[in-house]
Write a structure and sequence with these properties.
This protein has helices spanning 10-13, 60-77, 82-88, 93-115, 123-140, 147-175, 181-206, 213-218, 224-243, 255-262, 265-294, 302-318, 327-344, 351-379, 385-412, 417-435, 438-443. It is 68% helix and 0% strand. The chain has two domains: 46-252, Up-down Bundle (Growth Hormone, Chain: A), CATH 1.20.1250; 254-450, MFS general substrate transporter like domains (Growth Hormone, Chain: A), CATH 1.20.1250.
Length: 450
């Protein structure tokens, strides 16, 4: 989620390399091997966590990306109250949903195009541009109350955030050690969960002392400053890594390459699995509160407190084990477990049972998301890893649209919450069916290599 200053060399600029004499490939490595790829045998492969004496996963690059992610997602988690804010502003009901959705909708439209222009050499510059746009949007919220102005700010916010996250994923897929990819994605996802646990109670604490929600949203702008400060060292280190790679890995993938990559059934199936997973989770996330209140929960938000606590605990304490198991088989089993569990929410009866199920739900989510991303890293060709990682984020954007939209329609048509959780469980089952054949590709020697 940051960018770096332009450099003269094509490696750093991320522009097409047209030199007629290509440097020789590194000893022991195929010319197509790239950042984040599976170890091809040599000890100095940058995709290997021990490259050049690096201490595995705990590098400055990884830690700074996690820190930037926490700060970035704070400026999204703070909008948990945006629908209520629109109500307070007197925005007509017909416009509240579209204004709420404009930020992720912008990301959904921009991300597929943006991903093709990302390379290791220019990802940090994209991050910096995204931070600038997101910060500007945050500062605009207190001064925009009209529908048209709010729409523009929401689109600006979406553009900034997707640019920031796109650049971040471009660096992350390059620096994660291949033999620790599942652990790395699991730990990285904790940096996404933390803001959703911290920002809502913080906003509620300070809101009585502020003019309104708009001022609270602007409070997230100063959080972007530490992220800017982290980008300088990150950019230098990223350029140093890019300089060690064959120039062919720093050229933007062509549309032909993208289309060829998508013809890989495993890539398409993992994108679909992620879409179904997020659609299922979107139903649980947006409709659990009302159901918990119906069965007498005094604080329905505790469902997500227990679920997130289980997710974070499992990823932190057991994430390193994910890379020592059969990822494809474990992913299918996790989806199967969630497909059975989620429909049972509607039969919980009492809050204590529901909150116990929340722990199991959080444990399942702790497995599925890092395994999906690790799988995509493993089955993707090296030059398409950053692009395919952003396609996984497109699936996230689409899932958060599809799940709540379908759930709202079904509830309006008279379906019960138990029926709605059954639909969510069906999505989990579809995700598992998509992931099942991918396991064979993940077990194939040399998966993801040209």
């Amino acid at each position: 989620m940051s960018q770096d200053s332009p450099l003269d060399s094509p490696q750093d600029s991320g522009q097409d390399v047209t030199t007629s004499t290509a440097p020789a490939p590194e000893p022991g490595r195929e010319p197509g091997a790239g950042p984040g790829g599976p170890p091809a045998g040599p000890p100095d492969d940058p995709s290997n966590g021990q490259a050049n004496g690096q201490p595995g996963i705990w590098t400055y690059e990884f830690l700074s990306l996690c820190a930037i992610s926490v700060l970035a997602f704070c400026n999204i988690a703070i909008f948990y109250s945006f629908y209520s804010y629109l109500t307070e502003l007197g925005i007509p009901p017909a416009w509240r949903g579209p204004l709420l959705a404009l930020e992720p909708f912008t990301a959904l439209l921009v991300r597929p195009v943006l991903g093709r222009f990302l390379t290791l050499g220019n990802s940090v510059r994209f991050m910096r541009a995204g931070l600038c746009l997101a910060t500007l949007a945050l500062l605009c919220y207190p001064f925009t109350t009209a529908i048209a102005a709010l729409a523009l700010v929401r689109m600006l916010h979406g553009l900034g955030f997707v640019t920031l996250v796109g650049g971040l994923m471009g660096v992350l897929t390059a620096v994660l050690p291949h033999d620790k990819s599942a652990q790395g994605f699991g730990l990285f996802s904790v940096s996404i969960l933390l803001p959703y646990a911290l920002m809502p109670p913080f906003v509620e604490l300070v809101l009585p002392h502020l003019p309104g929600h708009g001022a609270a949203y602007a409070l997230a702008a100063p959080l972007m400053l530490p992220a800017f400060l982290l980008l300088g060292p990150l950019g230098r280190r990223t350029r140093a890594l890019a300089a060690t790679l064959h120039p062919s890995h720093l050229i933007k993938p062509s549309w032909t390459e993208v289309r060829q990559g998508l013809r890989n059934p495993s890539v398409a199936l993992l994108i679909l699995a992620n879409l179904f997973l997020v659609a299922a989770h979107g139903i649980v996330f947006f409709f659990m509160r009302d159901f918990a209140l119906l069965i007498g929960a005094g604080n329905p938000g505790m469902f997500f407190s227990y679920a997130n606590a289980a997710t974070i605990t499992l990823r932190v304490t057991c994430g390193h084990l994910l890379d020592s198991v059969d990822k494809g088989r474990l992913l299918s089993l996790a989806f199967l477990g969630l497909a059975v569990l989620v429909p049972l929410f509607g039969w919980a009866g009492i809050p204590l049972v529901l909150f116990g199920m929340a722990v199991l739900y959080g444990s399942g989510m702790a497995l599925t998301m890092p395994l999906l991303n690790a799988g995509m890293l493993q089955v993707s060709p090296p030059r398409l890893r950053a692009y395919n990682a952003n396609l996984m984020m497109v699936a996230v954007d689409a899932g958060f649209f599809a799940g709540p939209f379908l759930g709202g329609m079904l509830l309006a048509a008279g379906l019960s919450h138990a029926g709605l959780f059954g639909v969510s469980g069906g999505f989990m089952l579809l995700a598992g069916l998509c992931a099942l054949p991918v396991g064979r590709e993940m077990r194939r020697p040399g998966a993801g290599q040209p």
